[in-house]
Write a structure and sequence with these properties.
Number of helices: 5
Structural class: alpha/beta
Order of helices and strands: EEEHEHEHEHEEHEE
Strand order of the largest sheet: 1-2-3-9
Number of strands: 10
Radius of gyration: 19 Å
Strand content: 15-25%
Distance between the termini: 54 Å
Largest sheet: 4 strands, parallel
Shape: elongated
């Protein structure tokens, strides 16, 4: 049996990976980056996608573009955002807002509203579907006051942003697995391969042109 390892939310499973005899399997992970088990994986080009989104948002007339999402060493949205912010042509650099794990929703909202007041973004790129409602709870309107774009329009109720091309991710995962099978490559690899699939920008009502 040579399966692809389907996406699993970080920390969202009690599977005892170390108890599996991986030497009998060819494995390619799809979706989330995970350090354990350290297999080859195929996922979205998060940093590149974020830089694409940043450029498209600027083209649509937004100057103070913020990022609101989750801090995690497995996520690269923040890296793409910070790199885009340091473009020499950029006049406005907005600090990111990171959700804090374990913080009650009410306190999270308060921290978010403080960030809105101090950072003053006119658009937000996010990997959290909660952001539009949080903007509205803060007394602002989407998109009249603040435009919003999603890191993955297929997973969120936000119609502007990045389509991560999941069909292509699935196709490339299958091809990578077939390659391992043909090579007789089993078990946990000494060196992992990372295959990143670029997404595409999608226009929508949550981020109209200014």
């Amino acid at each position: 049996m040579k399966p692809p390892l389907a996406p699993l939310p970080p920390g969202g499973t009690d599977v005892k990976w170390e108890g599996i005899s991986w030497s009998k399997f060819s494995v390619v992970r799809s979706g989330f980056r995970e350090e354990s088990p350290p297999f080859h994986y195929v996922t979205s080009a998060q940093a590149t996608n974020t830089m694409l989104a940043f450029d498209r948002m600027k083209e649509r007339g937004y100057n103070r573009i913020g990022f609101a999402g989750y801090w995690d060493k497995a996520r690269m949205f923040g890296a793409g955002f910070l790199w885009s912010q340091h473009d020499p042509s950029s006049q406005a650099r907005v600090p990111p807002f990171f959700f804090s794990k374990g913080v009650p929703e009410l306190n999270q909202q308060r921290l978010f509203e403080q960030w809105l007041e101090t950072a003053r973004p006119d658009a937000i790129f996010t990997d959290s579907s909660a952001v539009p409602d949080m903007v509205r709870k803060a007394g602002r309107q989407v998109p009249e006051d603040i435009g919003v774009a999603a890191s993955n329009v297929r997973d969120m109720d936000i119609d502007s942003g990045i389509d991560q091309n999941p069909e292509e991710i699935g196709r490339i995962t299958t091809l990578a697995l077939i390659s391992l099978i043909h090579d007789g490559d089993f078990g946990i690899p000494e060196f992992t391969r990372e295959i990143l699939v670029r997404g595409k920008w999608v226009d929508g009502k949550s981020l109209p042109r200014r």
